Amino acid sequence: MTTITIQLPEKAQSKLSEMVKELGGEIISITSDKPALKKAKLLKEIKEGIREVKAIRDGKADSYSMSDLLDGK
User: Fold this and answer.
1) What is d(CA 37, CA 59) in angstroms, rounded to the nearest whole number?
2) Which residue among 11, 12, 42, 54 is least packed, with the fewest CB closer than 10 Å?
């Protein structure tokens, strides 16, 4: 089989997906640049940060000094 990576408008995605399936192909991955996906990623990162802060507050993780943060540790 051959793998093809393409960019197309959102409205064409369902038609193309149907055509690929009719031809015996398989949709492996669909990604989108929609703002909702970016928002979901940002919220996930914020939640991870809050979990880390809670772990530090509860003594389950080590805290960082300002020099550690500036040095990228």
Assistant:
1) 33
2) 11
- For 15-67, the pLDDT digits (tens) are 888 898 899 988 888 777 677 778 888 999 999 999 999 999 999 999 988 98
Residues 23 and 45: their CA atoms lie apart, in Å, by: 39
H helix or E strand, kind and range, residue 18: helix 10-22
d(CA 63, CA 52): 9
Specify the pTM: 0.47
Q: Could you tell me the residue ranges of all domains in the chain?
A: 10-71
Distance from the Cα of residue 51 to its chain's centroid: 18
Return the sign of the alpha-carbon dihedral for residues 14, 17, 22, 28.
negative
Query: What single-letter amino acid sits at 48?
Result: E
